[in-house]
Amino acid sequence: MFTFFQASSSCPLFQQTNMKSMNARIIFLLNMILFLRKNCNICNFSIEQRSLCIPLTLYLTLLIAAFFTFIPLHSHQINYTPYFKRGLANVKLKTQYSDVISQSKSMSASDSERNKLISPPELLESIFHKVDEDNDELLSIDEVAKYIHFKTQEHIENAMQENYGLFMTIDTSPRNGLVSWDEYHNYFLKQNSMPDEYIENHEERHAGLDKKIRETISRDKASWFEAAHTDPDYLTLDEFLAFRHPESSHATILSLVEELLDKLDRNDDDILTEDEFAQLKVGEAGEALLSQGEKERREEFRNLVDANGDGEADKKEIVKYIDPKNPRHAREEAITLVTLADTSHDGKLSLAEVLNKIDLFLGSKMVDTARSFHDEF
Q1: Residue 25 neighbours by CB under 8 Å, 6+ apart
Q2: Residue 317: in which H helix or E strand, if any?
Q3: Which residues are CB-contacts of 115 (< 8 A; sequence separation ≥ 6)?
Q4: Is the pTM of this model over 0.70?
Q5: Who's near 228: CB < 8 A, 6+ residues apart?
Q6: Which residue of 23, 63, 115, 258 sits 20 to 30 Å from the alpha carbon of 377, by its own alpha carbon?
Q7: How far apart are CA 227 and CA 221, in angstroms?
Q8: Following DSSP, what letter does each residue of 185-204 receive, concatenated?
Q9: 275-300 residue pLDDT tens
Q10: Which helix (H) or strand (E) holds 20?
Q11: Do residues 19 and 13 touch, judged by C-beta distance below 8 A?
Q12: Three-state DSSP class for 179?
């Protein structure tokens, strides 16, 4: 046996054969057979030698056949697309979104820690100087609007990234591309430092939990059923986004578009005219009366709703109008903040004026974008 292996390993063909070539493999296999035939003449062997050589030859033949059968000529390029479509995660996806989760958590943690470590006046003063681009110690409407728009975009982008990673993290029992209420609820309890024994055996009403946590669970359950359009017990990826960050969900925006059309589209053609937008329906008969600020609403329709200027707004134009990322929302909030806090009536805000309305600004998108959005939705 030792002589056979020694002879095989010293064979020039064995050493020089290119294992990446099919032709070389075939030649190697044929020469190996010839070698066995030449060096293992069974007829000249004793009974003991035959009993050893025959099983050895069969074993090596099967081993060589298996070697050439299962080792591919080229590395396989695995297509993971079907797994993505079914919501199954491979290692690369899990690693990728683990990084996203870490980044999102670190960004959220840094903002939260900053808000907790310093007092509200210090926080507002810090943000005031960030907003004051021209360093004139006054905030104009344009500066406030620009900063709010930036914070809105940042919040929505982070929310969408964090949502994808969190969805993949929670979807585990089983990993089927859907998140069940039980999966999310167990995750929520774990995030609130509940022990594993309680998570596995808790009662539905959570009578022993803190009142604030119970209220959060009730709100979550109501939001869950509102977002679950396909199945009340499960959420798809976009439904999960609508559940946690409705301001970032396209489905939520489309729902708001439908509500607007339902209120203003009098002829049910899914198109808004300037008259329909400017004149509101009141009364049981639905008669159209001139609303307060009709002139302003007509200007708003022409400048902000009717993007192509044809006198009508289709669903695509209304979606852009309602989208929270539309700069008009930031400008409207900036005008509101300046109007309410500008005691000097110069159209700008000083630091003293901002601090005089501390609660107003702490609840605004200028300071706490996430809370402001979630209060709205």
Answers
A1: 17, 19, 68
A2: helix 315-322
A3: 123, 368
A4: no
A5: 234, 235, 239, 243
A6: 115
A7: 10
A8: HHHHHHHTT--HHHHHH--T
A9: 999 876 554 444 444 445 788 889 99
A10: none
A11: no
A12: strand
